[in-house]
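R.M. (postdoc): so does anyone remember the format we settled on? I'll just put the structure tokens first.
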């Protein structure tokens, strides 16, 4: 006799260990390539904290809400709601803001514009509400954030801050979130009625988020422009963009 649980397991669910391995390899790669905090200038350290803040403060809950709208299984929904509840109940965006203020790294216009295009790409990806893609991406992000927290805390410490609630909370609690998101992924795959994307297309969101994180870390050419130049360039692109949509804004140089 075949048990009820055995009949619910789809062949796609067996891909989870290899997905987890792939995502962990990407995270290892990213962590290994981080520049040493004490070799960065104070302004470079401030820039990383500020660009990170400009993305995370207003977007993480948005991304998780997108995940909630996309998923179909009760298991995935309850895990995401649990995560969202913690974000809102414990005011994680406030923690983020306090962290940035204490490190003297509130985002400037230039910081916001430096991540604009890559953030737009991630927002539009989330907006497609493709459940398996989104859950893989969120699992990647939760795995990455807990590895990144000691680095972010060190940047802030070198900037003279001792406000570490944000990095303390996310360096510990999100370990549970990662495990929960992989369970949610399994539930979504088990429920999926359509064949899953194969090969690299499953990691489309991971690649987009990685590019966004790279822009947070790297002091790219856009950051070196003056705020005035950025403002003019941005307004000019908006004026010429069809429909004036954010997605029509080309990548920052
Ligand atoms: Fe959080």
């Amino acid at each position: 006799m075949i048990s009820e649980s055995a009949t619910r397991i789809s062949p796609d669910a067996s891909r989870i260990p290899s997905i987890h391995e792939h995502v962990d390899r990407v995270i290892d790669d990213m962590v290994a390539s981080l520049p040493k905090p004490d070799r960065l200038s104070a302004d470079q350290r401030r820039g990383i904290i500020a660009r990170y803040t400009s993305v995370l403060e207003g977007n993480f809950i948005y991304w998780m809400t997108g995940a909630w709208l996309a998923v179909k299984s009760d298991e995935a929904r309850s895990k995401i709601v649990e995560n969202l509840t913690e974000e809102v109940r414990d005011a994680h965006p406030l923690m983020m803001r306090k962290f940035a203020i204490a490190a003297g790294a509130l985002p400037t216009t230039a910081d916001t514009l430096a991540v604009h295009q890559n953030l737009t790409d991630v927002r539009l990806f989330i907006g497609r509400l493709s459940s398996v893609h989104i859950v893989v991406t969120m699992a990647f992000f939760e795995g990455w954030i807990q590895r990144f927290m000691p680095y972010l805390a060190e940047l802030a410490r070198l900037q003279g801050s001792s406000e570490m609630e944000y990095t303390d909370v996310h360096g510990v609690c999100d370990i549970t979130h990662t495990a929960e998101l992989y369970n949610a992924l399994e539930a979504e795959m088990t429920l999926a009625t359509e064949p899953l994307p194969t090969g690299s297309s499953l990691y489309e969101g991971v690649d987009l988020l990685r590019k966004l994180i790279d822009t947070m870390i790297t002091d790219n050419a856009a950051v070196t422009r003056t705020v005035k130049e950025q403002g003019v360039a941005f307004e000019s692109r908006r004026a010429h963009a069809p429909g004036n949509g954010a997605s029509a804004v080309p990548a920052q140089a």
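R.M.: ...and that's the designed sequence above, right after the tokens. Also worth knowing: Residues 1-9, 221-253 have pLDDT under 50 and may be disordered. Residues 54 and 112 are 6 Å apart (CA to CA).
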